[in-house]
């Protein structure tokens, strides 16, 4: 098959990395893949390799009262020239561009990775905001495009599947949940002997408000206030919230316990030296980093919300607490810190559990869906 993968950029993020992994695996399975991005941003040059990536500047922005921006001519020309069997799109910006003028005879698949503001539930007060009416109008037009192309949906977790059903109301047989895969060969358990003098917690991900990193710092302060000072929290990542996080560390005298390491080229090395992964996102759609951490044998401490319980088994591969429960989260860390045998038990169980998420099996499920849809697609 000829498959067009569409994503706004290939900057650093879970969806972007997944597109590269999917594309590489599809090519190994014998398919022709072209990745289209709208802006020349590539955060994973080491994963791009020989993959075919093309920048096609495109933009769609709807206005409630003003003038719409509809820059899809170059994208439409590329589709007409490439003649894909499947257009597989990722992230909302790609949806607006690729569904504005759907091509006939093409199978359209939307990969729904998360909870996007335009489709989030609204409160009564939201209807007094201009953005709400923009969102309502934009999603209405997007749904019209979905109807034109008989759009199909892949959702990354049952949690996201239920979210899409509520937000967009697709036909039930047009939505399939395929839990994300992980390139377990990229994140390897090395069995290193770890520093027993300091228990190291690792947090990996971009600094955005919805990732709730400030909660982890509040946990560290709580533990420090209670005399637990032989803990270290390492942040791998960067983003808009970094200054706020650094200010909290300074004002609460946590400089000796918290490190901001930015983006690193070898996260596998840091993960193998840590004792546990802590994850503070609320209603995490899936959490690819959880699979990667389990691949290297890290126990997980996270919230019992979103798609996380579909990955982490409470009391077996990690601990799941109530959302923003500082005491519960801190106690879970202390249980691991005080019991090396429990860490080893969780580590072994996590490494076994993650095998069912391997990338090849995951992409074969996507490939099977492509074949099924292309076969039944009217020309």
Notes on the protein architecture:
- α4 links the parallel β6 (86-90) and β7 (107-112).
- This protein has helices at 14-28, 45-48, 73-82, 92-98, 130-149, 158-168, 213-225, 242-251, 267-273, 288-295, 326-337, 340-353, 359-376; strands at 2-6, 32-37, 53-55, 59-61, 69-71, 86-90, 107-112, 152-155, 175-177, 199-204, 231-236, 258-260, 276-278, 300-303, 318-321.
- The model has no long low-confidence stretch (mean pLDDT 93).
- The longest helix is centred in the middle third of the chain and has 20 residues, at 130-149.
- It contains 13 helices and 15 strands.
- It has a 7-stranded parallel beta sheet with strand order 3-2-1-6-7-8-9, with helices on both faces.
- It is globular.
- With 379 residues, the chain is an alpha/beta fold.
- Helices cover 39% and strands 17% of the residues.
Please outline the helices and strands.
Elements: E1 2-6, H1 14-28, E2 32-37, H2 45-48, E3 53-55, E4 59-61, E5 69-71, H3 73-82, E6 86-90, H4 92-98, E7 107-112, H5 130-149, E8 152-155, H6 158-168, E9 175-177, E10 199-204, H7 213-225, E11 231-236, H8 242-251, E12 258-260, H9 267-273, E13 276-278, H10 288-295, E14 300-303, E15 318-321, H11 326-337, H12 340-353, H13 359-376
Helix pairs in contact: 1-13, 7-11
Can you list the strand order of the major beta sheet?
Answer: 3-2-1-6-7-8-9
What's the helix count? 13
Q: What would you report as the Rg, rounded to the nearest angstrom?
A: 22 Å
Order of helices and strands: EHEHEEEHEHEHEHEEHEHEHEHEEHHH
N-C termini distance = 15 Å
How confident is the prediction overall: mean pLDDT? 93
* SSE-based structural type: alpha/beta
Percent of residues in helices comes to 25-40%
Largest sheet: 7 strands, parallel
Q: List the uncertain runs.
A: none
Tell me the strand percentage band: 15-25%
